[in-house]
């Protein structure tokens, strides 16, 4: 099967011209290798030769002499001049020495034969040498052919002995070939698996690279978000500090305003006390005026209008009393005007303080709402903490502050009402006094 395969492959290569191309290529390489090389044997006739070379020349010459190649022998003798003279040292197969006769074969002497065998490494006394000598003496073959024939028989024997081992070697070669094929198949399979594993490894590497790229992108995005969040937190902290500072300043302003309101309230209470004292003095004055008027009426009733002189005196007295009364009336009117002006100023001051208090309460409410919003934002960013306690605290503080301001306003309103009632009473008394005097 293999021979058929090899023959078909060889014929196919020969048809395709591959064999001729290979031969041409090999010849060209051989020519290139042997180019400029001197391969001719250079013989130096003066140089000494080895014993084996003389034996080789002798065997070749004896072969040529036995085959009657005289011209070739002469050429060889010219190249190897130390050859023996075959006319003297070569005997015929019949046993007598002679020259080159055509009817009989020439034989070398026995001592030359033994010397030749010894030089070639064959013992002439042993069986190998004796068999060669007998073969040479009993046959017409030259000594060279006898030696070669003996070597051929030895080779045949060796081949016969080695034929038994050749089967084992061929079997061994077949087994080795099969195992080699198995190894080749396993090697191919391993190479395929290696290629498959390499492809899978490349695919995994590509997937891992893609995943690393995606993770790097996500990491950069997260870092950007983290930086933005840190910036926002920083700005939030700054705004929170600013808000706390503004709240503290506004709280200080509010406390200052409260102290100012307390001082003004104290001043208002002092002014109210002063007005109350003046009202009491004015009432006393009115009482005195009434007493004087009553006394005047009693005097007018008691004095009869008889004497003109008395009338003149009475008129003069009435004029004096009238002038005094007018002076007192002017003084009282000035006092009432002054009281009305002070009342007006106090009402304006109270209105202004009320407006300021309302403005401060509005600001406090706005700031508390802003503070609540900022607290809610901060708590939502940092941690979700319930804000009900903060709201309750803020509302309680606002209610307490607003309640204190409302109490102040209620007190001021009550005092203003008292002042208005007293001024109305003073006006009524003044009008009554004018009406009584006009009568």
UniProtKB/TrEMBL annotation:
InterPro entries: LisH (IPR006594). Residues 187-249, 275-302, 350-377, 402-429 form a coiled coil. The keyword Coiled coil applies. Keywords: Coiled coil. Pfam families: LisH_2. Signal peptide: none annotated. The keyword Coiled coil applies. This is LisH domain-containing protein. It comes from Nasonia vitripennis (Parasitic wasp).
